[in-house]
Specification:
Layout: H1 2-22, H2 36-46, E1 64-66, E2 81-85, E3 89-91, E4 95-100, E5 105-110, E6 115-120, E7 133-135, E8 142-144, E9 149-152, E10 157-168
Antiparallel strand pairs: 1-7, 2-10, 3-8, 4-5, 5-6, 6-10, 7-9, 9-10
Length: about 170
């Protein structure tokens, strides 16, 4: 009989903890019952303080890190390439790595072995992104031009202006 009670004891504790969190109130607590809450309420009232319940907020933030692309056993960028227009967004989960190019361009190496060039806004230099970048993903999980801001590990914050797919001739 005691074994069954021991199995359900954690569930009962969780149930009582959940109900305490759900009943958040900003009104003063009355010290009329018995128990540990009542004990602390009596101590605070004896000290001349009115006990109040506190509200707890949990915030969650996700930031993705895109690392520099390593060329070991991987596709090498072809010499003769043609640029093709692609959409305004690419999937973040499909990016395998990034490398800075000359000027304001970043080269994104995708998991499907395709290569995409992204042009940064005019005030940004691609060399700031030599060690990758951080991005806070939007709800759709895509990296889009004129919407998402890339933050380099050196501190630069830039937006992308356009994407072009690089295809071998």
């Amino acid at each position: 009989m005691h074994g069954i009670a021991l199995l359900f004891a954690p569930l009962l504790l969780l149930g009582s903890a959940d109900s305490a969190v759900e009943t958040v109130d900003q009104s003063p607590v009355e010290a009329t019952g018995t128990g540990s809450d009542d004990y602390y309420a009596r101590l605070q009232s004896a000290a001349g303080q009115t006990p109040k319940r506190q509200q707890v907020r949990i915030r969650q933030r996700v930031i993705l890190r895109v690392t520099p692309y390593r060329r070991l056993n991987a596709t090498v960028r072809p010499r003769n390439v043609v640029e093709r227009k692609i959409g305004k967004c690419i999937d973040l989960k499909e990016i395998a790595g990034v490398q800075p190019d000359v000027g304001r361009r970043l080269i994104f190496y995708m998991r499907d072995r395709s290569i995409v060039a992204g042009s940064l806004e005019k005030s940004c230099a691609a060399r700031s992104f030599y060690s990758g970048f951080y991005v806070e993903p939007d709800e759709d999980g895509r990296l889009c031009i004129d919407r998402d801001r890339l933050q380099s590990r050196t501190g630069a914050k830039c937006k992308l202006e356009r994407f072009r797919e690089l295809v071998a001739e």
